[in-house]
Specification:
The chain has 367 residues and is α+β, with helices and mostly antiparallel strands. Helix content is 40%, strand content 13%. It has twelve helices and four strands; from the N terminus they run αααααβαααβββαααα. 26% of the residues are buried.
Length: 367
């Protein structure tokens, strides 16, 4: 049994008070507000919303503040809060083709209908520290123009019209969609569950898995068919009305990877798809997600699955940073009894080893 520590509750209470003091920092410095976090640390907020599976900028900003900037701890807080919320139903599938685009790039075609839209991005910066930001910086007003009414079809839809890419997989009529928040994870898992898992998965883990596929562990040469970021409308079927009603708009990032496929005895060579979707502007996450999604499709495409990124049980069982955090951090809890047991066994084994080798040592000394 664990040994009770005298005064443990008081020690824990004092630790909480110290944490609150450290969280606030120097009280001579103005306290950061949730609006400041949401507006100026927007990409951190987007990640917390995406991996916490809850689209609420204010709550995500609160979690970041409470966690002292530790994004995984903030994701944990949002994840836990989400689990307490009632569910009224499921929204209709969003139409990313009708997205009000703020950024849209493709590495497959220079000229695409609707044009390339660079939008807000670090891609073309020099990655040099900017000292002017330390003193308070007022940026120039961004360039503006009249909104274009030109359609922005997905690049994969353009390829699809010529039969150069596999059709977008469609669910069977009347088939139910899995729900990882209500059902335990089982294997083999269909793509709907895999995509849910990846959408909630840790960005760093998915980035490493995606990177591994580029270095030969499940080699599958990709092209960024299209990455788009913008607002989409969310609709919900109201039972009283009998039709879909708009709930509002959310910002999403979508990535469609175009991958090589050599074909098979029954299918002609064509491009295949990898898909990623996440809340907010989350390009690294969606690109990594799309790479891993394609790697996990090896089984359904008749490819040999040998690499970690192609092993759905490996990927899906280790991608959730809330589960991973809990499993790793439980090592900080008392394990006195377990360790004493291991320590006693080790001492016994060392004594047996010493006894077994004692005669040899005495012979050597005599010689």
């Amino acid at each position: 049994m664990y040994v009770a520590v005298k005064g443990g509750e008081r020690a824990i209470e004092n630790a909480h008070r110290l944490l609150a003091h450290k969280r606030r920092g120097d009280q001579g410095v103005p306290e950061v507000t949730l609006d400041q976090i949401s507006e100026q640390l927007g990409l951190a907020v987007d990640r917390v919303m995406s991996e916490g599976s809850l689209y609420d900028r204010e709550l995500a900003a609160l979690a970041i503040k409470q966690a002292r900037g530790d994004l995984i701890e903030a994701i944990f807080l949002v994840h836990a809060f989400r689990a307490t919320l009632p569910r009224f139903g499921a929204s209709e599938p969003v139409d990313t083709g009708a997205m009000r685009v703020q950024r849209r790039v493709s590495s497959t075609f220079k000229d695409i209908p609707g044009g390339q839209i660079l939008g807000p991005t670090f891609d073309y910066t020099h990655r040099l520290l900017d000292p002017s930001l330390a003193e308070g910086f007022v940026p120039d007003a961004p360039a503006t123009a009249e909104a274009s009414t030109a359609p922005t079809p997905r690049v994969t839809d353009i390829l699809g019209r010529d039969g150069l890419i596999e059709p977008s997989p469609q669910p069977e009529e009347g088939a139910s969609v899995g729900d990882l928040t209500r059902e335990p994870l089982n294997f083999p898992a269909d793509r709907d569950l895999r995509l849910q898992n990846l959408a909630r998965g840790d960005e760093g883990f998915l980035l490493a898995m995606g990177y591994s596929t580029q270095r030969g562990y499940g080699r599958n040469h990709p092209f960024a068919g299209e990455i788009r970021f913008g607002e989409v409308e969310v609709e919900f079927i109201a039972e009283d009305a009998g039709f879909a009603v708009p709930l509002g708009s959310i910002e999403l990032t979508e990535c469609q990877m175009v991958n090589q496929f050599k074909g098979s005895a029954t299918e002609a060579p064509c491009f295949t798809r990898g898909y990623g979707l996440a809340f907010g502007q989350s390009e690294r996450k969606t690109m990594s997600m799309a790479l891993v999604d394609r790697a996990l499709r090896a089984r359904e495409l008749g490819e040999e699955a040998l690499a970690p990124a192609q092993d759905e049980e490996f990927v899906m069982s280790h991608s959730d940073n809330v589960q991973a955090t809990g499993f790793v951090e439980h090592l900080k809890l008392p394990h006195y009894v377990d360790f004493q047991s291991e320590l006693g066994l080790l001492r016994k084994l060392r004594q047996e080893f010493a006894d077994a080798n004692a005669p040899d040592a005495m012979k050597e000394a005599a010689e």
